[in-house]
Amino acid sequence: MSKLVSQIPTLAARLVQESKPKLNTFMKYAKVELTPPTPADIPQIRAGIGRLISSAKNGTWKNLTVREAWLNTLVGIEVLCWFYVGECIGKRHIVGYDV
């Protein structure tokens, strides 16, 4: 047992050393991808919504490849699941509201 306890500092140092490159990569992408939209992004968002609505009206969504359609479906499912998770957190119960 004392041998294990004596190895804790070296194991901790190794853990820090091994995780630094991965943490740096995570932070690099997190600074870009996890930021809220800025006011400069609003026109791009509105244009994207407009393109989405026009493609739904014109039927250009029929020209998607199977891969693009599958990825769009997965994104939609993810958004729906996060909505349900937020609902469960908000009502503090999995089923029904506590009335």
Automatic annotation (TrEMBL):
<keyword id="KW-0496">Mitochondrion</keyword>
<keyword id="KW-0375">Hydrogen ion transport</keyword>
<dbReference type="InterPro" id="IPR016702">
    <property type="entry name" value="ATP5MG_metazoa"/>
</dbReference>
<dbReference type="Pfam" id="PF04718">
    <property type="entry name" value="ATP-synt_G"/>
</dbReference>
<keyword id="KW-0813">Transport</keyword>
<dbReference type="GO" id="GO:0015986">
    <property type="term" value="P:proton motive force-driven ATP synthesis"/>
</dbReference>
<dbReference type="GO" id="GO:0031966">
    <property type="term" value="C:mitochondrial membrane"/>
</dbReference>
<protein>
    <recommendedName>
        <fullName>ATP synthase subunit g</fullName>
    </recommendedName>
</protein>
<keyword id="KW-0472">Membrane</keyword>
<dbReference type="InterPro" id="IPR006808">
    <property type="entry name" value="ATP_synth_F0_gsu_mt"/>
</dbReference>
<keyword id="KW-0138">CF(0)</keyword>
<comment type="similarity">
    <text>Belongs to the ATPase g subunit family.</text>
</comment>
<keyword id="KW-0066">ATP synthesis</keyword>
<dbReference type="GO" id="GO:0015078">
    <property type="term" value="F:proton transmembrane transporter activity"/>
</dbReference>
<keyword id="KW-0406">Ion transport</keyword>
<dbReference type="GO" id="GO:0045259">
    <property type="term" value="C:proton-transporting ATP synthase complex"/>
</dbReference>
